[in-house]
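Severity: low
Component: inverse-folding endpoint
Summary: output formatting inconsistent between runs
Steps to reproduce: submit the following structure tokens with default settings.
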């Protein structure tokens, strides 16, 4: 026999010995094969939790009121009293225009008025004695009224040299500098109201019967990640825009801190219903197929049927003395149709098809079918529950 033939015979003998050892009790090989064929998955528990129903949309934050402050008279800007970013009150002095010309015109108007007053006083004394005609008396009377009106106009022009804030708010923009020549009706300042703030949502018409005035809303601005602000629905438009199929919902927010700013882009959630004790699962567990919504539930696999023993097979002494190891527990996935309800974040409400405590597949669900053997790699819900119990026990011991 050559060396090559000797090696071949040894290899065949070794393979036969290994196969005989693995199948000696008839269970080791099938168990190993079943473990290899199992699909690894992660699961979560169907459990009770509060959940809220909400409509989400995006909008730009706007001011409740805004005013463009314009100059009502012409002249050189003499003095500024406020700067951009400052909070102002209605009636507060913002700037002054040189008033020399306005004061001169007021003095002239007052002189003309006093002259007319003297003339009319003479006419009043003369008319009872019929020293002047009635026509002259009436003319003097109307002339005095005209001169008084001119004086009031001159006083008003003098007052216009003092530029006042028409509304409360924050000075958002200053368009002039000291020394500039200001023309009548020229924009000088822009004042924006910071409280309250508003956001207008364009909501699909199917939500018309759900949203109501006074409902709570929650706002989160992109520029202020992690911070949430609460508000209410101020008003709802009574008509639907036929072009877009939406209606306007105006939300109002009070931010005493001044953190929110007009112009910020924000996400708004309108909470219109809430359930304190809903059966929920992670959204990742849902499977949408053929217009049906389903989940895969992990159950214990049924025990394998006992193997038939041949009478001719007689266990040797070593096999008879050895204890048979119990089979490892197996799991199988079952597809179940479910009825879903509200959704919030990464959880969704289940209104039918599941029971509390069912384990649903969240990772690996696309690789299984009804009846597929699975291997649970990580049961996050179970670990979380055990951790909570351990923490509670620790608190009890410390107390």
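Observed output (run 2 of 3):
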């Amino acid at each position: 026999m050559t060396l090559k033939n000797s090696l071949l015979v040894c290899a065949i003998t070794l393979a036969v010995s290994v196969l005989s050892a693995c199948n000696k009790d008839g269970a080791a090989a099938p168990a190993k094969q079943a473990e290899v064929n199992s699909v690894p998955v992660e699961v979560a528990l169907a459990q009770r939790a509060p959940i809220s129903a909400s409509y989400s949309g995006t909008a730009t934050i706007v001011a409740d009121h805004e005013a463009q402050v314009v100059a009502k008279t012409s002249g050189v800007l003499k003095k500024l009293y406020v700067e951009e970013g400052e909070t102002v009150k209605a009636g507060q002095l913002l700037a002054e225009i040189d008033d020399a010309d306005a004061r001169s015109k007021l003095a002239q108007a007052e002189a003309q008025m006093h002259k007319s007053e003297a003339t009319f006083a003479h006419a009043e004394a003369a008319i009872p004695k019929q020293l002047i005609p009635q026509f002259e008396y009436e003319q003097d009377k109307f002339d005095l009224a005209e001169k008084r009106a001119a004086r009031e106009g001159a006083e008003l022009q003098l007052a216009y040299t003092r530029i006042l804030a028409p509304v409360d708010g924050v000075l958002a923009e200053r368009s002039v500098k000291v020394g500039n020549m200001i023309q009548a009706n020229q924009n000088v300042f822009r004042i924006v109201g910071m409280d309250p703030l508003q956001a207008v949502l364009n909501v699909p018409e199917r939500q018309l019967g759900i949203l109501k005035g006074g409902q709570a809303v929650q706002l989160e601005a992109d520029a202020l990640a992690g911070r949430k602000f609460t508000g209410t629905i101020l008003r709802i438009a009574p008509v639907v825009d036929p072009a877009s199929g939406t209606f306007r919902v105006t939300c109002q927010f009070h931010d005493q801190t001044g953190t929110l700013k007009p112009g910020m882009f924000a996400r708004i959630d309108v909470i219109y219903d809430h359930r304190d004790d809903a059966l929920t699962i992670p959204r990742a567990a849902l499977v949408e197929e053929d217009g049906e919504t389903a989940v895969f539930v992990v159950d214990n696999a049924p025990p394998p049927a006992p193997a038939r023993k041949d009478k001719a097979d007689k266990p040797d002494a070593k096999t008879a003395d050895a204890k048979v190891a119990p089979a490892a527990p197996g799991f199988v996935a079952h597809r179940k149709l479910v009825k879903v309800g509200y959704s919030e974040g990464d959880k969704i409400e289940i209104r039918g098809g599941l029971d509390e405590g069912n384990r649903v597949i969240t990772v690996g669900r696309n690789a299984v079918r009804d009846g597929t053997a699975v291997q649970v790699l990580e049961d996050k819900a179970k670990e979380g529950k055990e951790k909570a119990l351990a923490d509670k026990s620790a608190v009890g011991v410390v107390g």
